[in-house]
Specification:
Layout (H helix, E strand, L loop, with lengths): L4 H10 L13 H18 L3 H10 L5 H11 L23 H10 L3 H8 L3 H10 L3 H11 L9 H18 L11 H12 L3 H4 L5 E6 L6 H13 L4 E8 L2 H14 L6 E3 L15 E4 L11 H9 L17 H9 L16 E6 L2 H4 L6 H11 L3 E6 L13 E6 L9 E6 L5 E7 L2 E4 L2 H13 L6 E5 L4 E8 L4 E3 L3 H7 L3 H4 L9 H23 L10 H14 L6 H11 E3 L21 E6 L4 H8 L8 E2 L5 E4 L3 H4 L9 H22 L4
Parallel strand pairs: 1-2, 1-4, 2-3, 4-5, 6-8
Antiparallel strand pairs: 5-7, 6-7, 8-11, 9-10, 12-15, 12-16, 12-17, 13-14
Helix pairs in contact: 1-9, 2-9, 2-13, 5-7, 6-13, 9-13, 10-12, 10-18, 19-23
C-alpha cells in the first residue's frame, strides 16, 4: 500500500481531540465520519471543479438529470457534482460565516451526494460545532492536515481508512462486537473463488453480472468484486446491489460506490430481513459477512411469520436460535439466487460466498432449526466448499472464521460432493496490528488457496466428501422400567408427597364452610387409603408391578374405596423404587415401558444401518435396550476440525516430570533470591 492505513486513520481521528469536553467520546464518530466523507468527495471533484462552475454559470444544464449527464463527461464518469461557489479549502477564508458557507457548500452537491451527507445528520453537527466555536477548527484541520486526493489515496485504501475509523468509533461507543469488517484480502479470496469456475465467461467481451451484499457495511465486498472483475477484463460490467442497516456505514457505502460511478442507486438503507429493498431481484453473485452472534429477537414476529410461509417465504427451511441470526442471512441470499439454466450459453445460476464463525457448522441438534437449515442446503446440492481461515484476521475479533461457497450450479465431479479446505496456516504476521487484526493473507497465499479450490483434489489442505457424509441419525435408545414395590411405613409416607394424593385434601370452594367440609372429606379419604395400604404385609418386596397393582386394588375394594387410575398411578409411584432385578413394567398392550432415567441417544452415521449399529455398539452392554423409532431424526453437522486433526505424539512422561521438577526448583530459587533468603 502507498500509505500506512493505521497512521492515516489515526491522524484523522486525532482531530477528535479538539472535540474533547464539548462532545462525549461516543459522539466523536458523528463528526469525524461525515467530515471524512465530505473531504473525500471534495478531493475527488477538485480537478474538475473550475470547469463545472464555468458551465454552471452559463446555465447550460437546466434539470438535475441534464446536470448529472452533462457533468459526468467532465468529471470522468462521476455521477455527482457540486455547484457551490465554495470548495472545502475556500471555507477557510471566512471564519465568521463558516456555518452558513459550509451549509451552502453541502447544498451545492447533487441530490444523490447531498442525501448521503444528510444521512449523517450533518446540519445538526454543523450547528453544534458552530455553537461550541469548533467548526472552523475542524474544517481547518481537514483542509490543512488531511489529503484524501485519489492520486494519493486509492479507493481501496480509502475503504480501509473508513473501516478503521468506524472500528475506533465502535470501540469508543461500546457498540456490539458483531460489527466485523472484512479485510480486503479475505474479500479478494472470496471473490476469486466465486469467479474461478467462470473465468472463460468473465474474459469474454461484454461480460455482465449482478453482485449483491445484504449486509453491505462500507461497501468493501462490492468494491472488491468490481475491482477483481476489472483486473480480469477491463470491459467487464459488474452491477452492484446492497443493503445496510446502519445509517452511517450505509452513507459511506453509498458515497464510495458513487465516487466509483458504480451503482450507487442500488445501495439501500434498511433491514434486509424485515424491509427487503430488492424483493424481486435475483443475482449471479453474492457476498456477505453478516454480524456474528447477533440476536434477532427484535424482529422475531416478522421472521417467524415468514418462516410459517414455508417455501413461499425466505426462512422456510428453519429458524436458528434467537441469539444468532447468521443462518438467516444465508437463507435470505439463497432466496435471491438467479435460476440456473443448464442449456443456456451465457452466465446463469448463482454463486455466493458468506463468512461465518464456527457456530453454523455444528450448532443445533437433529431436528433443530440450524440442523434443518444445513439439511436443506446440503440435500439441495447447494453447498460446494467451506474454507477455514486463520484466526486474528478481523479487526474486532480474533476468532476462527469460515467461508462457505454455495451455488445452484455445481458441475461435473463436484455434483454430490462437498469440499473442505484448511486454510488456517495460510497467513503472514503483520508488523503493526489493526485492532485485533494481527495476520493477513498474502496475494500469493490467496492464489494458492484458490488453486487448491480449483484443483478439487484430496491433499494435506483439502478433503472431499459425499454430501451425505455429514448426515446422521439421532436415535433414541430406551431401557425398560424395572420397579419393586413395598408397603413399608417409609414408602407409605412418601405417598403423601405425590401431587394427585395431596390434591385430595384441597378445595376450590369459595365459601369457608363448604371449603372446610371438602378438605375434611379429602383428609378422611386419604387416611382411608393409607389404612387400606397398611393391610398389605409391609415386609414383603414385590418385583412385578402388575401383580402388586392387583393386590393393591383388592385391598382398596375390601375397604370400599374407589381409587381412579391417576391416583392409583401416584400411589404406585410412592411405593416403588428402581430395581434392576425386578420384572419389566409393561403398558396395557404388554409393551415394555421406558425408564426415562436410562434413556440415551446415539448419533449414527447416515450411511450405516441403524439395526447393525445398535447390535454392535449397544446390545452387548444393554441387552434389553431398544430403539424408539418414532423419535428417530435425521440431522446434519460439519465437524470441520475433526477432519483435519493431526495427532501429536506426547513426550516421555518421566522426562516431562523431570522438566517440571527442574522448572519448579528454578522458580523457588528465584523467589528465595527475590526475598533475600539466599
Amino acid at each position: 500500500m502507498s500509505i500506512n492505513i493505521s497512521e492515516k486513520s489515526n491522524f484523522i481521528w486525532k482531530i477528535a481531540d479538539i472535540l474533547r469536553g464539548d462532545f462525549k467520546q461516543s459522539e466523536y464518530g458523528d463528526v469525524i465520519l461525515p467530515f471524512t466523507v465530505l473531504c473525500r468527495l471534495d478531493s475527488v471533484l477538485a480537478p474538475t471543479k473550475d470547469r463545472i462552475m464555468e458551465i454552471h454559470r452559463k446555465g447550460t444544464f437546466k434539470t438535475e438529470y441534464a446536470k448529472l449527464a452533462g457533468f459526468k463527461s467532465i468529471t470522468g464518469g462521476l455521477k455527482f457534482y457540486n455547484i457551490s461557489e465554495f470548495t472545502f479549502a475556500k471555507l477557510k477564508d471566512d471564519a465568521s460565516n463558516i456555518a452558513d458557507n459550509l451549509t451552502d457548500y453541502i447544498k451545492g452537491f447533487s441530490e444523490n451526494a447531498r442525501t448521503i451527507l444528510e444521512s449523517f445528520d450533518i446540519y445538526s453537527q454543523i450547528a453544534r460545532l458552530d455553537k461550541a466555536n469548533l467548526l472552523y477548527l475542524v474544517v481547518t484541520k481537514f483542509v490543512d492536515d488531511i489529503d484524501l486526493h485519489p492520486d494519493h489515496v486509492s479507493n481501496n485504501e480509502m475503504g480501509y481508512i473508513f473501516e478503521e475509523l468506524i472500528r475506533k468509533f465502535s470501540e469508543m461507543s461500546n457498540e456490539t462486537a458483531g460489527e466485523h469488517f472484512t479485510p480486503r484480502e479475505v474479500i479478494r479470496l472470496m471473490v476469486a473463488m466465486l469467479f474461478a469456475p467462470d473465468m472463460r465467461l468473465i474474459n469474454e467481451p461484454g461480460f455482465m453480472a449482478k453482485l449483491y451484499d445484504p449486509a453491505a457495511g462500507t461497501g468493501g465486498m462490492l468494491s472488491a468484486g468490481i475491482e477483481y472483475a476489472t483486473e480480469l477484463n477491463n470491459q467487464a460490467l459488474i452491477e452492484v446491489y446492497g443493503q445496510e442497516l446502519n445509517e452511517k456505514t450505509y452513507a459511506i457505502c453509498k458515497s464510495d460506490t458513487m465516487i466509483k460511478g458504480k451503482g450507487y442507486e442500488n445501495i439501500h438503507l434498511g433491514n434486509s430481513f424485515t424491509d427487503d429493498a430488492l424483493p424481486h431481484e435475483t443475482f449471479h453473485y453474492m457476498l456477505c459477512n453478516p454480524p456474528f452472534g447477533v440476536e434477532w429477537k427484535k424482529y422475531e414476529k416478522f421472521i417467524r411469520d415468514e418462516n410459517e410461509r414455508g417455501d413461499a417465504g425466505r426462512f422456510g427451511a428453519g429458524l436458528p436460535r434467537v441469539s444468532d441470526g447468521s443462518l438467516l442471512f444465508l437463507q435470505h441470499m439463497i432466496s435471491k439466487m438467479m435460476e440456473y439454466d443448464e442449456k443456456a450459453e451465457g452466465l446463469t445460476g448463482c454463486r455466493l460466498a458468506i463468512v461465518f464463525n464456527g457456530s453454523p457448522l455444528f450448532t443445533g441438534d437433529a431436528g433443530s432449526g440450524e440442523s434443518e437449515i444445513r439439511k436443506w442446503i446440503i440435500e439441495n446440492g447447494w453447498l460446494e466448499t467451506i474454507i477455514a481461515l486463520p484466526d486474528q484476521l478481523f479487526y474486532n475479533t480474533g476468532i476462527l472464521t469460515y467461508v462457505w461457497i454455495v451455488t445452484n450450479r455445481k458441475k461435473g465431479t463436484r455434483k454430490g460432493k462437498i469440499q473442505l479446505i484448511d486454510g488456517t496456516s495460510f497467513f503472514e504476521r503483520m508488523r503493526k496490528p489493526l485492532g485485533e487484526k494481527r495476520k493477513l493473507i498474502s496475494e500469493e497465499q490467496k492464489d494458492e488457496l484458490t488453486r487448491i479450490y480449483g484443483d478439487f483434489m484430496e491433499g494435506e489442505f483439502c478433503k472431499i466428501f459425499d454430501e451425505d457424509d455429514f448426515a446422521y441419525w439421532k436415535v433414541t435408545v430406551e431401557r425398560p422400567l424395572r420397579l419393586n414395590f413395598q408397603t413399608s411405613s417409609e414408602r407409605i409416607e412418601r405417598i403423601r408427597e405425590q401431587k394427585a394424593f395431596a390434591n385430595l385434601a384441597t378445595s376450590r370452594k369459595r365459601k369457608p364452610a363448604e371449603h372446610d367440609a371438602e378438605v375434611a372429606e379429602g383428609k378422611k379419604q386419604q387416611e382411608a387409603i393409607l389404612a387400606a395400604i397398611g393391610t398389605i404385609d409391609g415386609t414383603m418386596l414385590y418385583k412385578n408391578r402388575a401383580e402388586f397393582s392387583k393386590l393393591l386394588q383388592k385391598a382398596f375394594k375390601k375397604a370400599g374405596l374407589n381409587v381412579k387410575a391417576p391416583l392409583l398411578k401416584a400411589i404406585l409411584a410412592g411405593l416403588s423404587e428402581k430395581d434392576e432385578t425386578a420384572d419389566i413394567c409393561t403398558d396395557a398392550k404388554g409393551n415394555p415401558e421406558p425408564d426415562t432415567d436410562l434413556r440415551d441417544t446415539e448419533q449414527i452415521p447416515f450411511k450405516e444401518d441403524i439395526a447393525a449399529y445398535i447390535e454392535r455398539e449397544v446390545l452387548p452392554y444393554a441387552p434389553d435396550a431398544w430403539v424408539d423409532e418414532s423419535k428417530t431424526k435425521k440431522g446434519y453437522e460439519i465437524p470441520f476440525t475433526r477432519h483435519f486433526y493431526k495427532y501429536t505424539e506426547l513426550g516421555n512422561a518421566e522426562e516431562t516430570l523431570r522438566d517440571i521438577q527442574s522448572l519448579g526448583a528454578k522458580i523457588q530459587s528465584a523467589i528465595a533470591e527475590l526475598f533475600g533468603e539466599v
